[in-house]
UniProtKB/TrEMBL annotation:
The gene is trmB. Substrate binds at residues 124, 156, 193-196. Its EC number is 2.1.1.33. Keywords: Methyltransferase, S-adenosyl-L-methionine, Transferase, tRNA processing. HAMAP family: tRNA_methyltr_TrmB. The keyword Coiled coil does not apply. It is an enzyme of class 2 (transferase). This is tRNA (guanine-N(7)-)-methyltransferase. It catalyses: guanosine(46) in tRNA + S-adenosyl-L-methionine = N(7)-methylguanosine(46) in tRNA + S-adenosyl-L-homocysteine.
Length: 213
């Protein structure tokens, strides 16, 4: 999609195919070649402006990261963050695609961990299928993650969190960690997302879970 608000965004994205990979389906099963190493691959679906994924990639150079985002207007900020770094962020790539097509871009078991951060809540019942923790999405994630592959999920939205706990449990996944107030005793490894900073500044609790297939 071309951004209505940042008409220059798609041109900047198109001029950096080494960072925002233009035809990711051609890289399916070949991400180790793209990164030129065999490090684990962690992806984030719904990366937004990329504060989390760029922060994680800088903090963990031995892990490869891919941020997936639908819109030019936000993913372009993640791209700008990479470009501002003197040597770029070599262990990070970005995909401007829909997470529901994840199986077209990654081979079975090719992804070691999936992050979902402040996913759109889609509060209306009739839109439940669009929630990134809906059973239909869990099915897609299960294919690209290995046995015991993990999903890490953060949100400020209590209803979405409750829904996700149920959806993940009913799917048969094992909940390995649940926090109802991540910032009460914030772990030193936590990297805040844009939304996380916004909502925690307002005093809202941040919910977090880790689950394993
Ligand atoms: N993760 C960021 C954060 O925590 O600050 C952004 C959160 S924002 C509420 C949700 C983002 O997910 C939006 O940028 C939206 O465009 C993106 N998104 C929603 N559904 C998506 C999908 N199916 N595939 C890729 N991105 C998606």
């Amino acid at each position: 999609m071309r951004s209505r608000f940042k008409p220059w965004a798609s041109d900047l994205i198109d001029s950096h195919p080494e960072i925002v990979i233009p035809k990711p389906e051609e890289k399916k099963g070949k991400w180790q070649e793209v990164f030129d190493n065999k490090n684990p691959l962690h992806i984030e679906a719904g990366t937004g402006k990329g504060r989390f994924i760029t922060g994680m990639a800088k903090a963990n150079p031995d892990i490869n990261y891919i941020g997936i985002e639908l819109f030019d207007s936000v993913i372009v900020t993640a791209l700008e963050t990479v470009l501002e770094e003197e040597n770029g962020i070599p262990n990070l790539r970005l995909l401007k695609v829909n997470a529901k097509k994840i199986g077209e871009y990654f081979e079975k078991g090719e992804v070691d961990r999936l992050y979902l951060n402040f996913s759109d809540p889609w509060p209306k019942k009739r839109h439940a299928k669009r929630r990134l923790t809906h059973e239909s999405f869990l099915k897609l994630y299960q294919v690209v993650l290995p046995e015991k592959g993990e999903i890490h999920f953060k949100t400020d939205n209590r209803k979405l969190f409750e829904y996700s706990l149920t959806s993940i449990s009913e799917y048969g996944m094992l909940l390995t960690d649940v926090s109802l107030d991540l910032h009460d005793n914030e772990p030193e490894w936590n990297i805040m997302t844009e939304y996380e900073e916004k909502f925690s500044k307002k005093g809202q609790p941040i919910y977090r879970l880790e689950a394993q297939f």
